[in-house]
Each structure stands twice: as structure tokens, then as C-alpha cells.
Write a structure and sequence with these properties.
Elements lengths: L1 E6 L8 E7 L2 E7 L12 H4 L15 E2 L8 E2 L2 H19 L4 E5 L5 H15 L4 E3 L6 H10 L11 H4 L2 E5 L3 H4 L1 H13 L4 E5 L12 E3 L6 H14 L5 H7 E2 L1 H9 L3 H8 L3 H13 L3 E5 L1 H4 L4 H15 L8 E4 L6 H6 L6 E2 L3 E2 L3 H11 L12 H10 L4 E5 L3 H4 L3 H10 L2 E6 L12 E4 L8 E4 L4 E5 L12 H17 L11 H11 L12 H7 L2 E2 L26 E2 L18 E6 L25 E4 L1 H6 L7 E5 L4 E8 L7 E5 L31 E8 L4 E7 L6 H9 L7 E6 L6 E7 L7 H8 L7 E6 L4 E8 L2 E8 L5 H10 L27 E3 L4 E2 H10 L4 H12 L9 H14 L1
Parallel strand pairs: 6-7, 6-16, 8-9, 8-12, 9-10, 11-22, 12-13, 16-17, 17-18, 23-27, 24-26
Antiparallel strand pairs: 1-2, 2-3, 4-5, 4-18, 14-15, 19-20, 20-21, 23-28, 24-27, 25-26, 25-28, 29-31, 29-34, 30-31, 32-33, 33-34, 35-36
Helix pairs in contact: 2-20, 3-20, 3-21, 4-14, 8-10, 8-11, 8-12, 8-14, 11-12, 17-19, 27-28, 27-29, 28-29
The structure holds iron/sulfur cluster.
Length: 904
């Protein structure tokens, strides 16, 4: 047994992990107590990383097809890379360099990013390289550059401990950045005077900690921030000295803000004017105010303006460049920052240089020893796939991302992929939504198998280290890019230079480091040895520095021509797609607590399914009642771009007239093209980030009377392989979903249709769940369409399929999940009754997935305890252990504890 220190590969908190390994396998993951991002803490996703490394679905060897109608066949690395190099060279020669594109990812390491960027710009000669960070962070980039002069988050995690007011806008950090949120909870516990303001249309788990929740109408953030500025000015809470000494452009903003009275803004935002005034006073009067923000601001057609309007508040009050103060964008991906730093986005160049600056282009060309960097703008993510659909781009190389799930307007994106001349997919997995479109699949080494660096939200560069050899024939991303580049260079120029002859990621880091010299991202003081010795460091970290820079702009000098920050006088613009009589609901998208992105990785871990076991759209209970709907009804959701079927759930935290659908659901778990069948491809004019957060929809109960639910534990124990087989059946039903069951190593299929399926379908599903043997209990009533089968494994329910009447599903699933003895129930197991057998207790919704503790036990324990909410919570934790491991469930536990006090 030995251990390796590395970094979590999920979110931008960038937690340090210690990987335990034995006999060439990763056996466990722990939080690194020395890592300054998390000091030993991990959330549920981080704690289960070791369960994501191997298993069914990994891409293990290169695959290639010459004919779209044929399946890909296994080939050698040489054959795959030569084929792609031939095709790219032919397309570039015939149609020019902009006929190819690279779509990369915030999950790549910095070294991978660098290699792809150099490949696209220095060798191919195109700026058609963009990252999926375009979908999450480009508005933050544009906001910082427009106001502070550079794309640099000025604050750090430690500022949470020093803040007197924390404004959390458009971020459900409790679920999306759980370890960071633990730090906010700690700060609040240590300092009850700390004011927390949460701006979010939904009452999220994050809003539960807020002293003030501003449940604004979606997309009205700019109006809110201008309204707060108006109030700050009225109440003399602006810092005239700071404005005078360190900024420019305040007069124009002041004039604009006069038109945003708290009263008019309150009406626009759908909040009370008093709430706005309170927020402004808390922000203005705080000794230090910190803003944390994320997709709610960024994923918007006015995302850059939202960012800039929030930064205005910091500049106007001088809440920046001091401990506890500053605007602080949270990154969604583990290395979104690395992509920004290495310029691996269509409109950026390496080291925070600008593509539209001739001097910057010339400098990069000189450093890379190429004649020029093309000035033609590259295509950003949404534009790239539109160009692919039109045929302007003919070949696309997709690395470490899943556009057939994550881009908006999926029907158009999938058309683009289907029509492309060549799709190359480089990924750790062979079963993503994008994989069926790939003509060439290149297996990439995954987390735990590769070396390099990542940068987290607070500019902290951490080492990522390999603990085991790569699976199968998988190779590190940087190496794949460089091997391809050398082949392409020979075809285009008749020789391969040493430009891509890297033999280790450290050589790439060293070259990248030199390109930051003198820039605001300067890391000339870092190399792998320094990071190994001194631990993770925040940029800038210049040559000779003993450590990095926690906080920027402490001297009030900004990276602009005159050293002054700029105010942004940007008017409020409403969301791109208004609701109307035809599409009357506002759809908001967001995250689940225990899942991540398209669930290609987190969806492989059974435990992570406990908290949200099946896809659902959340509606306000009043909307459900008004429309005669009930939780569990299958709804048809429709936007102007597409439709999907999904079950309804009630959530009082969702405002009336709104609907909330997690962004994770794609066609691997839900029939149809997933949530992004509905979303809008309209982008911000400056950041080019699409408005993924919001669109207008209509919804109605689906007329799908035929129902089926099947669940079971495969006899061979390989739930992932069984899930893949079940997944293949999703398109056969108008509505269907498939998931892992958190307990019993099982798989669940739920389906609904307008009529009973064709002959043979039910038999096939029985076979899939191994419900076709002689030991299976059966009931059939063809006249009523009721068919039930149950397989027992000794005393326990091992699998079941209920077609037609499914009223016994809830208790049967409890028997399966809890492994309760069931054999004695005999024929009752087949009875169409919702009444559970005597003595069986349902666990209810699982709240604590670490310890598998359900709502029933928690509510019982809280109710039996005495004292205030904290005392009851402590007693429940002692009794049940809930919330004692990763802590992600603590916001929900606190809410239940408060409810128990109220009930008492
Ligand atoms: Fe990973 Fe969770 Fe830390 Fe994010 S908060 S880096 S997902 S352990």
C-alpha cells in the first residue's frame, strides 16, 4: 500500500486528495489535510473518485471507422493517428486551416491545454480552438477584463474568513462547491454578525444559510446591482476616495444608476424594495464585502454585464484588494482557469494576451518561433457547432468533453455532428452521448493515471499526479495532441520540427512558464520541484518569490493602461427568451448535490444516486395544484427548440411560474436529447457564452398510460454493464429513464408509453433483468395489461418488473434496497397493493448518502430530541451519523432540524 498526493478532478474548488493504491489499483481517496483549498475535507463526489477509474465504458484502445454506417473497429495508435493526420492535412490543404476545429475542456490539465493550443495556432494556423469553459466561465473573463483590466479573480478562499458580508449571486455553492461552502458555514458559525445575502430565483440549499434571500426573477441581476448602487449612493455608502484614486468612468455609471431606483428595481426583480435596501446597506457598511458568483451570472445573454455590474459595487465601495473583500467568480470545472491562462479559447491567447492585439499575436508567434498567429477570429463553442452544421468547419477534434449532452439546442448540435466530415473524440470514456458520432475514438488517460497541473478558482496551481498506469492503451491527452501534431507537421510541411517533441508534461509546463514572464499570470517562480516542495501556489508567483500571491490589487493599481479600474455603465437587458402565452413557464437549470456535469463520471458511482435517484422537473406545489398535476406525473416539457418527457416533483423553493431541471440529464439516462433539447443557443455578445440557465417552456401532463418499472441486481454484479444494456432501450419508449440504484448494486428502468409496446419488448426487458428463469415468481393479467415478475435471491428481492399496475413499487423497492427478508411474503409479493407489509419501514428520501440515512430516521431522531435546532441536529448526528462525513447534507439537515423545532 502506498499513497499519492493529487487533486480532485471535479469542481473548481480544487481540493487536494491523497490516493491510496495497492497492487497497481486505486483503492481509496482521502482529503489532503495539508492542501490549502480543503484542509482534508472532501465532498461526496471527491470521496468516491476511486470508484470512477475503471469498469465498463472506459475507452481502452483506439477505434476507427471509414464508413459512418459501420461500427468502429479497434486499430493501433499509429493507424488511428496516421488516419486523422491524413484527413486533417487533406481538409486543411483543400479548404484552409479554418475548416478544422478543436473543442477542448476545462477538465484537461494545463499541459494538455497548452499542447492543443500550440497545435491549433502554431501548426494548423487556426484560432478555431475553444473550450467547454465557454459554457461556464467566459462571462466572468469578459467581466473581469472590462472592469479590472485582466481576467484575474482578485480574492482567495481565506477571504471568506475575513468578510463581514458575503453576497452569493447565481451560485448554489452548497451543492456545486460543497467544500467551499463548509468554509462559509464555519465563518458564519465563528462570526454570527457575518451577513450572508443569497441572490437566486430558487430557494436553494445555499439560500438556507442566508440572512437575506433575494429571490429575483431570472436574469434581472444587472438591474438588482444597479439598484443596490443607487441605494449605496443615496445613503452615502460609496467610497469617494477609492473611486477618485483608483477608478475611471464613475460619472457615466452614476448617471445610469440614477435610473435604477430601489423601488423600480424591486418591481423589475420581483422583490421588496426594503430587501434591496437591506442588501445595499449590509454590503456598503460591511468592514469587507466579498461576492461569490457562478453560473447564474455567467450562463446568460447578458453574462458579461452581470459580472461587470457586480464588480461595479466593489469598486464603488472600495471592497477589493483587502482581506475579506473582492469579487470572486467560482469556477465550475477543475481547470477552467488553466484554459483561460493558457489562452485555449477562441478569442484569447496564452498568458492573458489578446487575439485582437497585433503586438500580442506577434509576441506569441516569436515565442513559438512561427511566422504568425492568425488574426482571423476563431469560432466559439456555439458558433463552432453551427459552422460544423453549415459545413464551414469540416472536421472537429473533441477532447475530454461531451457536446452532444452539454451544448444548448441539442437537436441542432447532433445534426452538426452527424453531418461532419470527420469527428475525432479523445476521451476516457467510450459511452458518452458524443461517442456514437465519433469516427475516431482516442482513449485518454483519466484522473489517477496522468501527470500535470490544474488551477482552481483562487488562482492556485496544484499538482495532479498519476497513481496507477493508464487503463488499456489509453495515453495522456498532451501526448496524443503532440503525437498527432508531429504527424500533421510532416504532412503539411514535409518534416517534423522539435516544436512538439515533449517527452514529459514537465517540459510543457516549463515552456508555458516562460510565456508568462512579465504577464499578470507570471509563474516564472514555479516548476514541478517548487510545487512539490512548497505545495500549491497562487499566481502570480514570479522568479525569486518564496510563495504565490493570495490577493490582487492590494495597492489599488490595476492592469490597465493607466492603472485604474473601469466602471461599466451597462444597462439592464432582460433574458433573451421571454415567457408568453404559448410558452408560459421560465425554465431554470442548475446542479444536483451529488452529480457533476453530464454524469459521465459521477453517474458511475452507485452511492451518488442516493440523493436524487431519478430525473425530475421541480415545480412549485401551487403550479402543480393549479394544473391538476401530482408529483410523479410524467410531463411533456416543450420549448421552441425541442421537447422531453420527465417526471414532476414538488418544490416550494421553486417560484410559481418557474420550473427547475438539473443540467445533468442527457440521453444516457433519459429518453430524448436531454435537458439541452430545450435550452437556448443565444449567446452574450461579448463573452459568447450561451444562455443555458434560462428559456421559456410549456408543460402538460403526458398521455402515456402504459407504465413499466424494472429494477434488479445483476447476477454477475456488473451494474455498469447492465446499465449500458438497459440504456439501449431508452429510445424505444416515449418516456424512459435508467439509473443506478444507490443500494444493492442495482439498475432501475422506468418507462411510459401511449400504448403497450410491441410483442417481444416486455420479454426482452424480463431477460435483461434476469426475470425469465424457472425460479421467477410471475403474475399475468393480459386483459388488464398487468404483468409482474419477481426474482428472489434466497430471502431477498433480487429483481422485479411491474408492467401496468405498479402500486407495489415503493415497498418492493425498499425490500430490494434494504435487502429485507421477503420470501415469507410468498404470493403477496405479486399483489397490486400500495400497502407495505407490516413491519416494513421506508427510509424515505436519502439525505446523507455517505451513511445512507433517510429522511424518516432523521425526522424521527430530530423529533425525539430536545432543545434548539443545533442541539437536535447534534443528537441526530450522534445517533445516525448523518452529516458527519462529507457534510454535503448539512444544509438539508439544518432545515429539517428547524422544522422539528417549529413542529415541537
Ligand atoms: Fe472535488 Fe468536492 Fe472538492 Fe469540488 S468540493 S474539488 S467536487 S471534493
Amino acid at each position: 500500500m502506498s499513497e499519492v498526493h493529487s487533486t480532485c478532478c471535479y469542481c473548481g474548488v480544487g481540493c487536494g486528495v491523497i490516493i491510496d493504491r495497492r497492487d497497481g489499483r486505486i483503492t481509496g481517496v482521502r482529503g489532503d489535510p495539508e492542501h490549502p483549498a480543503n484542509f482534508g475535507r472532501l465532498c461526496g463526489k471527491g470521496q468516491t473518485l476511486h470508484e470512477t477509474v475503471g469498469g465498463h465504458g472506459r475507452a481502452l484502445f483506439p477505434e476507427l471507422r471509414h464508413d459512418r454506417a459501420a461500427p468502429r473497429a479497434r486499430v493501433s495508435w499509429d493507424a488511428a493517428l496516421d488516419h486523422v493526420a491524413d484527413r486533417f492535412a487533406t481538409i486543411i490543404r483543400q479548404h484552409g486551416p479554418d475548416a478544422v476545429a478543436f473543442y477542448v475542456s476545462g477538465q484537461l490539465l494545463t499541459e494538455d491545454y497548452y499542447a492543443f493550443n500550440k497545435l491549433a495556432r502554431a501548426l494548423v494556423g487556426t484560432n478555431n480552438i475553444d473550450s467547454n469553459s465557454r459554457l461556464c466561465m467566459s462571462s466572468a473573463v469578459a467581466g473581469y477584463k472590462a472592469t479590472l483590466g485582466a481576467d484575474a479573480p482578485p480574492a482567495c478562499y481565506e477571504d471568506i474568513d475575513h468578510a463581514g458580508c458575503i453576497l452569493i449571486a447565481g451560485s448554489n455553492a452548497a451543492w456545486a462547491h460543497p467544500v467551499l461552502f463548509r468554509r462559509i458555514e464555519d465563518a458564519k458559525a465563528k462570526n454570527p454578525d457575518l451577513k450572508i445575502i443569497v441572490v437566486d430565483p430558487r430557494r436553494t440549499a445555499t439560500a438556507e444559510i442566508a440572512d437575506l434571500h433575494l429571490a429575483i426573477q431570472p436574469g434581472t441581476d444587472v438591474a438588482l446591482f444597479h439598484g443596490m448602487l443607487n441605494a449605496l449612493l443615496r445613503e452615502n455608502l460609496a467610497d469617494a476616495g477609492y473611486i477618485e484614486a483608483h477608478t475611471r468612468g464613475f460619472d457615466a455609471l452614476e448617471t445610469l444608476a440614477r435610473g435604477y431606483s430601489p423601488e423600480s428595481v424591486a418591481e423589475t426583480c420581483g422583490i421588496a424594495a426594503d430587501e434591496l435596501l437591506t442588501a445595499a446597506r449590509w454590503f456598503g457598511n460591511a468592514r469587507a464585502a466579498l461576492s461569490l458568483y457562478c453560473m447564474g451570472l455567467n450562463q446568460s445573454s447578458a453574462g458579461a454585464d452581470k459580472n461587470a455590474a457586480l464588480i461595479n459595487l466593489h469598486l464603488a465601495t472600495g471592497h477589493i484588494g483587502r482581506p475579506g473583500a473582492g469579487p470572486f467568480s467560482l469556477t465550475g470545472q477543475p481547470n477552467a482557469m488553466g484554459g483561460r491562462e493558457t489562452g485555449a479559447m477562441a478569442n484569447l491567447l496564452i498568458g492573458h494576451r489578446d487575439l485582437d492585439d497585433a503586438a500580442d499575436r506577434a509576441e506569441v508567434a516569436r515565442l513559438w518561433d512561427v511566422p504568425e498567429i492568425p488574426a482571423r477570429p476563431g469560432k466559439t463553442a456555439v458558433e463552432m457547432f453551427e459552422a460544423l452544421r453549415r459545413g464551414d468547419i469540416r472536421a472537429v477534434w473533441i477532447a475530454c468533453t461531451n457536446p452532444a449532452q452539454s451544448l444548448p439546442a441539442q437537436n441542432a448540435v447532433r445534426d452538426a455532428l452527424a453531418n461532419a466530415e470527420l469527428v475525432v473524440l479523445q476521451d476516457i470514456l467510450a459511452d458518452t452521448e458524443t461517442a456514437p458520432y465519433a469516427d475516431v475514438l482516442l482513449p485518454a488517460a483519466g484522473w489517477g493515471e496522468k501527470e500535470g497541473t490544474v488551477t482552481n478558482s483562487e488562482r492556485r496551481i496544484s499538482r495532479v499526479r498519476a497513481a496507477v498506469a493508464a487503463s488499456g492503451e489509453a495515453r495522456p491527452d498532451w501526448r496524443i495532441a503532440c503525437d498527432f501534431a508531429m504527424r500533421l507537421e510532416r504532412r503539411l510541411h514535409g518534416r517534423a520540427s522539435s516544436r512538439f517533441a515533449f517527452d514529459h508534461p514537465e517540459r510543457i509546463f516549463d515552456e508555458y512558464r516562460e510565456m508568462t514572464r512579465g504577464r499578470d499570470t507570471d509563474i516564472t517562480g514555479l516548476d514541478y520541484a517548487a510545487l512539490d516542495a512548497g505545495g500549491p501556489q497562487q499566481w502570480p508567483c514570479t522568479a525569486g518569490a518564496r510563495e504565490g500571491t493570495p490577493r490582487l490589487y492590494e495597492n489599488g493599481v490595476f492592469p490597465t493602461a493607466d492603472g485604474r479600474a473601469r466602471f461599466a455603465a451597462v444597462p439592464y437587458r432582460p433574458v433573451a427568451e421571454a415567457v408568453d402565452a404559448r410558452f408560459p413557464f421560465r425554465l431554470n437549470t442548475g446542479r444536483l448535490r451529488d452529480q457533476w456535469h453530464g454524469m459521465t463520471r459521477s453517474g458511475r458511482v452507485a452511492r451518488l444516486w442516493a440523493h436524487a435517484p431519478e430525473p425530475a422537473v421541480a415545480l412549485n406545489p401551487a403550479d402543480l395544484a393549479r394544473r391538476g398535476l401530482r408529483a410523479g406525473d410524467i410531463l411533456r416539457l416543450e420549448s421552441r427548440r425541442g421537447a422531453l418527457h420527465v417526471a414532476a416533483t414538488a418544490d416550494a423553493g421553486v417560484a410559481p411560474g418557474q420550473a427547475f431541471l438539473p443540467m445533468h440529464w442527457g440521453s444516457r439516462y433519459l429518453s430524448g436529447a436531454g435537458v439541452n433539447a430545450l435550452t437556448l443557443p443565444v449567446t452574450d455578445p461579448r463573452s459568447f457564452q450561451p444562455e443555458l440557465k434560462h428559456c421559456a417552456i410549456r408543460l402538460a401532463k403526458a398521455a402515456l398510460p402504459w407504465r413499466l418499472v424494472a429494477f434488479g441486481t445483476p447476477r454477475d454484479g456488473d451494474a455498469l454493464a447492465r446499465l449500458a444494456q438497459v440504456r439501449a432501450w431508452l429510445p424505444r419508449f416515449e418516456f424512459a429513464s435508467c439509473t443506478l440504484t444507490a443500494d444493492a448494486g442495482g439498475v432501475l428502468l422506468r418507462a411510459a408509453a401511449g400504448a403497450a409496446p410491441a410483442a417481444g419488448v416486455l420479454e426482452a426487458i424480463h431477460a435483461l433483468f434476469e426475470l425469465d428463469g424457472g425460479d421467477v415468481l410471475q403474475y399475468a393479467d393480459p386483459a388488464r395489461g398487468n404483468f409482474r415478475r419477481i426474482r428472489l435471491d434466497g430471502e431477498r428481492v433480487a429483481a422485479a418488473c411491474l408492467a401496468g399496475d405498479g402500486s407495489s413499487e415503493p415497498w418492493l423497492r425498499e425490500f430490494h434496497a434494504q435487502g429485507l427478508p421477503a420470501a415469507a411474503l410468498g404470493a403477496m409479493l405479486l399483489a397490486p397493493t400500495a400497502r407495505a407489509p407490516a413491519g416494513m419501514a421506508s427510509r424515505g428520501r436519502i439525505i446523507c448518502s455517505c451513511h445512507g440515512v433517510g429522511e424518516t430516521a432523521i425526522v424521527g431522531s430530530l423529533g425525539a430530541a430536545a432543545g434548539d435546532a443545533a442541539a437536535r441536529l447534534g443528537a441526530a448526528q450522534q445517533q445516525l451519523l448523518c452529516g458527519t462525513q462529507c457534510g454535503s447534507c448539512l444544509p438539508e439537515l439544518r432545515k429539517l432540524a428547524a422544522a422539528a423545532v417549529a413542529a415541537a
